[in-house]
Design goal:
Blueprint (H helix, E strand, L loop, with lengths): L2 E3 L2 E3 L4 H13 L4 E4 L3 H9 L1 H8 L3 E2 L4 H9 L10 H14 L3 E6 L4 H12 L4 E6 L6 H11 L3 E5 L4 H13 L3 E4 L3 H6 L7 H5 L3 H8 L4 H4 L1 H16 L1
Parallel strand pairs: 3-4, 3-8, 5-6, 5-7, 7-8
Antiparallel strand pairs: 1-2
Length: 240
């Protein structure tokens, strides 16, 4: 049973449990997709019923960020903890490498996915990089066909929300992959183009603030966090 946070149903899993659940999907027949909503994405879902539907129909809905965890606790339905998308992907790639499986990297600026693939191949011996493609494409069909021809088991779809969620829901089956994961700007981190927040900031739920200090232009997006908390308080009042 999922934990409802403002209409988005989150799977109540630890990071380790989420990775195992992801591997179960990789081994299962058919196509599946994972979404990793943070408070900003929850607000997008509230504003767009179509996106809400896509997110709630994902095979795994993981709480990316301490804001979602705090929101769930405020509503009296606590989650086990946050499951950052990038950490989920790292755990998944470790398992994929052990089984000799392959991934396709989709998204980011030209050249970033290729660099990420090179670095990930070195970091996870045994992991096969089936192919890469930047996020600057106009037609889905050629990209979908390239993924299908690559035979990738997993696709990391890093197109930004909600574009990546819509893309996975629309094209997942046609790619031939067993699992697609929407991971925002993760390829920039994997490529070393963007530095992830140090462990202290991540452990204390301050990764968002670190990113804001590094990229002040994100202030507009970050303002959705207090809005999210206001909506959680309103929802809490309704549930009493």
């Amino acid at each position: 049973m999922r934990i409802d946070v403002l209409g988005v149903g989150f799977d109540n899993l630890t990071l380790e449990e989420a990775v195992e659940a992801g591997m179960d999907l990789v081994r299962a027949p058919g196509a599946h997709y994972v979404v990793t909503p943070n408070p900003e994405i929850v607000e997008v879902c509230r504003a767009d019923p179509a996106v809400m539907d896509i997110v709630n129909h994902a095979d795994l809905v993981l709480a990316d960020g301490v804001g979602v965890v705090k929101g769930a606790a405020m509503l009296g339905t606590p989650l086990k903890g946050k499951v950052p998308g990038i950490e989920f992907a790292m755990g998944l790639m470790g398992k994929l490498a052990k089984e000799g499986r392959s991934i396709y990297l989709l998204g980011a600026k030209p050249g970033v996915a290729e660099l990420a693939g090179k670095r990930l191949g070195e970091q996870y011996p045994g992991l096969k990089i089936a192919g890469t493609h930047d996020g600057y494409f106009k037609e889905d069909a050629p990209v979908v066909e390239a993924i299908r021809e690559s035979g990738a088991d997993v696709v990391l779809v890093c197109l930004g929300a909600p574009k990546q969620e819509k893309w996975m829901a629309k094209n997942g089956t046609a790619t031939g992959a067993h699992l697609l994961c929407g991971l925002g700007g993760s390829l920039d981190v994997f490529a070393g183009v963007v530095e992830r927040a140090p462990k202290f900031w991540c452990d204390h739920g301050l990764e968002w603030f670190y990113r804001l200090l590094k990229e002040p232009r994100r202030i507009g997006r970050m303002m959705k966090l207090p809005l999210f908390l206001v909506h959680v308080k309103q929802e809490k009042g309704k549930r009493r």
